[in-house]
Amino acid sequence: MTADVCVVVPTIRKPRCVRDYVENARGHGFDTDRLFFVLVTEDFCDAEAMEAILTEEGVSGQAFDETAREDWFDEHGLSRYADLVPAASHAQTSFGLLYLWANGFDYGVFLDDDTRPHDDVDFFGQHLRNLGYEGPVETVASDTHWVNVLHQTADEHGLYPRGFPYGAMGEAIESDAVHVDRVVASQGLWTDVPDLDAVRILQDGDLRGQAETRLTAEDYGDPFVAAPGNYLTVCSMNLAFRREVVPAFYQLPMDDNPWGVGRFDDIWSGVFLKRAADVLGDQIVSGAPLCVHEKAPRSTFDDLAAEAPALELNEHLWRVVDDVAGDGASYAHVYSAMADRLADGDWSAYRNGEFLNYVGEHMRRWLDCLAAIEGAAVEPVVADD
Asked: pTM of the predicted model, to two decimals?
């Protein structure tokens, strides 16, 4: 059968997580022929060993190191866009989006290689059920227009996730039940190590890039959506989405840029996606399926150095795009309007404000690249029998 789910895993390790997710799928009766794994890695890694895991597990996929990515761009006549995928950055997940777009997959799933599914959770099945869900769900709003995805037990643990603006903290929330009929993204959350930024990790007393406070399944309630006009942090370690959002979901050019900005690729792409979803009347569901986040120790101060150049920008970015709608015809149209706002704006009032112009220009070129792919005849990927 034709694979319809592109699973993108950025990794510089041997991605044993693939075995865990494939085992989970089979254990819950999910057809693994639907899955195609794109392992995004580096030239110094053993791509052949990574592909051997896919072969041993009987699933389709390919490992793309830097050389293989360059070849892919060349083969598709897209070399002029190769720099959209930054070097040595988690934001290389953007390559997976391009691969998805070129090969006609209906759905994408982002996984980090330091995660694994809970045995009792139908991981891929739950994500796809979320994307197909129509019915009542809790909607959450706050007086600061930001919803903490960890809000359900925040009074106990006091955590805010990576990317949550400091100026939006201390929010008062209210919830209601609404009917959703168009879910375009499903954000699964995480147990064990929470996804925190460096400042919050330091406040939690950890110098190893993790957190002293840990989360369990009991810290979460039912899935929810952030109300229209409200934003939320979108983390790409456990995330499924529909093909149609790819034009508005570029994982932004982090790390490999003149300002040394890093670690906001999925956060800012989530801001843009939420704005576009609001304009189009669609929803992003957060909560299930949970995954276990077994984050490896690393220097908290290295993360701080990557985040610091854009901390001020992160406080203001959402306000910059909050009234952007374009003509509201599609995700590409809304995204194009946001790209123009950033690329053409004067952001000199903010530290490293020029980075927003840089991001806007890359967003424009992202849409150009997708259009170039769409104009080429590409055969869909067929899963191995």
From this structure: 0.95
